[in-house]
Write a structure and sequence with these properties.
62% of the residues lie in helices and 4% in strands. The chain is mostly helical. Strand 1 and strand 2 form a beta hairpin.
Length: 201
């Protein structure tokens, strides 16, 4: 009986899992495949002023669109055994426990999940909007927004990222992805906006 209940629970959990898009190099392909992601990205733009190409670039580089992404574990005993994870970051947007609680408290959202795409993109919009207001970072500057996202606002103000060449490289890649996604999105935006497109595709 216990085994049957476990199997039912396991099947329920796996059935709720969302697979990453089959093509991630083109934002139009992603939105063609994931209509709900397209709508969630537009809601984030309308609410927080963060364009879809910036939001999607963040998620691509944070989790590669993996719903349950977590940081790698450290290795102990001469690298033979897995140790603790490097942080509590989790989900599409790789949000740590404490920052997620701040988001919930500030927005008043109680029933949100880091595994839910629409909640993850709303979080990215919320955080980047705060970076714009508190740090003066332009909302289209994905590179600087990402540095503040990774280091936290205090860390960004102190310039902690300057001692991390790897992070500077990643932030440049995020900006390049946002630029590429933006150019692609301009070519398919009209098609995606059509109320008939998703009806027949």
């Amino acid at each position: 009986m216990k085994i049957n209940l476990f199997l039912i629970f396991f099947l329920f959990i796996t059935s709720c899992a969302v697979s990453p898009p089959s093509k991630t190099s083109n934002i139009c392909d992603i939105f063609d495949e994931k209509r709900s992601w397209y709508k969630a990205s537009l809601r984030t733009e309308k609410k927080w002023g963060i364009a879809p190409e910036v939001t999607m670039a963040f998620i691509k580089h944070e989790s590669s669109y993996q719903q349950g992404a977590k940081p790698e574990r450290t290795r102990i005993f001469f690298g033979l055994l897995p140790g603790k994870r490097k942080s509590t970051a989790y989900g599409y947007a790789q949000v740590t426990d404490g920052t997620w609680e701040s988001y919930k408290k500030d927005t008043g959202y109680r029933f949100v999940s880091r595994r839910d795409f629409k909640d993850a993109v709303d979080f990215i919009g919320w955080y980047n909007n705060r970076s714009n207001k508190n740090l003066g970072i332009p909302k289209n500057n994905a590179r600087l927004l990402y540095l503040a996202y990774h280091e936290g606002m205090n860390g960004y103000q102190k310039g902690s990222y300057r001692a991390k060449p790897w992070l500077l490289s990643v932030s440049t890649n995020v900006q390049n992805t946002a630029n590429k996604y933006g150019s692609q999105f301009e070519k398919c935006k009209k098609r995606l906006d059509s109320p008939f497109y998703f009806l027949f595709n």
